[in-house]
Amino acid sequence: MLRFFFQRLLWFAITLWVVVTVSFFLMRQVRGGPFDGERALNEAIERNIKARYHLDWPQWKQYLQYVGPLNLDDHGAQFLGGDGTDVFTGILVGDFGPSFKYRDFTVNDIIGQSLPISISLGVISLMWALLLGLSAGIASALWRGSTTDVALRLVATTGIALPNFTVAGFLVIFFVFTIPLLPVAGYGSWRHLVLPGFALGAPFAAYIARLTRTGMLEVLSQDYIRTAHAKGLPPRLVLLRHALKGGLLPVVSYLGPATAGILTGSLVIERIFAIPGTGSHFVNSALNRDYTLAMGVTILYTVLVYALNTLVDFAYTLLDPRIKLEES
Amino acid sequence: MAGKNPKSWDLGGKNFEELASEAAKFKGESLWQDAWRRLKANRTAWWSLLFLGVFMTIAMIAPLMPIPSPVFLDLQLEPQPPIWPWTNFGTGGFEPQYWELSALDNFMVDTRVAIFGDWQTGPWLGTDGKGRDILSRIIWGSRTSILVSLAAAFCSLAIGVSYGAVAGYLGGRIDNLMMRVVDILYSIPFIFLVIFLITIVNEYRAELEDNYGIDRETVFYVVIGAVYWLTMARVVRGQVLSLRNQEFIEAARVLGASTARIVFVHLVPNVLSIVIVYLTLTIPAVMLFEAFLSFLGLGIEPPKVSWGILAVDGSEMVNPVKLYWWLVLFPAGAMGTTLLALNLLGDGLRDALDPKMRGRD
To answer: Which residues in chain A are closer than 8 Å to B184, comparing Cβ atoms?
Structure first.
């Protein structure tokens, strides 16, 4: 068990290193820098700005400076981030540096403000997805071929079949313009997150329903379920204690990608509902060539996805004793 | 074993040759023949297949059909609501305006002009804010969306299944290494990668086209396809892990089957049902991803049209003042029915391919 986690930690470090290195150099290969605007800057000003952010250094030196708590400046001058008071210490100690576009903020400030919002949105939509998906999937598997099954599958398929901004559009038409129940956009109270959470979670609820149905059908046709029934166990017990464990395996392995999908999907939903989360920085920073912010958000998402995938693998072994952690 | 004489077995008074010729009279049925027969018996799946077939045919011959041009602008003040076919079946005034088409498509457009002249159907599904016909845009959009999703699905199928099956079967260190590679790729938030690649391609599109003949859309297909094999690999590997220790694999190994044979002949058919279920999830996912990129302005570029662009156009027109329902409903309906048919077909295939169902019903 402990070995498993140490192995994962090692691979995590490698993954992170690959992601940081690749995106660092990839980003700097693209034409255009963070300070290019409509008008060309005065040459002296541009030189000064570049010197302030060390963009005039060779790339390997910038990279070392970015990663580690090193001071590579020839004159020992320190790289000040944010409002010009904090010393930039490198990502190894969790400092993502100053944002190039939002001049007075460090990347840590920006993430610290927006991440909690994104996380609460993500949690709400994941809860919607699990609640709706699991119950619909189990119901369809139990009553396979019935009207309930057909109806649930139709609804689930519609959920898969529509882009989340279209779902959001329909929701807004119904629950805001037609029946004024909820606020149309913005962020403040839990009521602001109900519609976005649902729009974001709906496709995942539909996937989960399908996976649960497939998994449950697979399990319900197994011999050990027949045995359990033959022993005279009450059907509810057979379902909850014997079938559910095996039937949920595909869902568990899907939770990792689902969370990643919810994280990226929030990009669109946050924009539609004007929620000030991390998603909006994701695209904008890449387009603005805001190197540090883009790197910070990428690293953050990498860490989140990796941690969740490890958790999922761990849960997998708890549910299916045939798969051993040591083996993988 | 070696000492046993076959003649001592009770053969019912027949010798081996007679028995063998008797057995040869029974016509064997492969898994696929069986599955095909049962798919045809499943009415929902069969109709879905027919629907998708018709739909793809329409998409392919779109330039031949007497529909208005999908990009012909008629700048009015606001979107026109649908006019039913029995009110306005069609009018003249067709303008053969398109983006740069392939030679085959150009030939089809010429044929269409030769057959129908400048006659075109009326605005049966209404027009959008720039006076473009929605029906025509949906049909032309389906070409793009189908192409993207097929290309990406094929990529994910080919790479994902072989990768996952090999990793799961070999197990141990190799499996560990292969799956960690998948993990690393997984952990790279690929949306970032896609955004990045597309930005880069945008910057260098002239060079790419002039020097290598690669256009932006090819990159688009390859990038999406190369991203979607990851889930497939994981799922297949998970299934193979639980299959590899079962008796029939051991039996194959004892009989001296090679690794490649075991993986592709014995293991892959057994995971195919779950692969198909995932494939019917991948195709919609790719179509939706295209919509997502269009929303961010990184997808297919206007004047070209795709379902994603239509969905974005529609949802941008949602406002509390006036409801342009046809802009939201029809594109969503086209996408919804197609993906519904795909899913129902996938379910039918799943039931038809399930080895445990073999020989039943």
So the answer is: 11, 14-15, 18-19
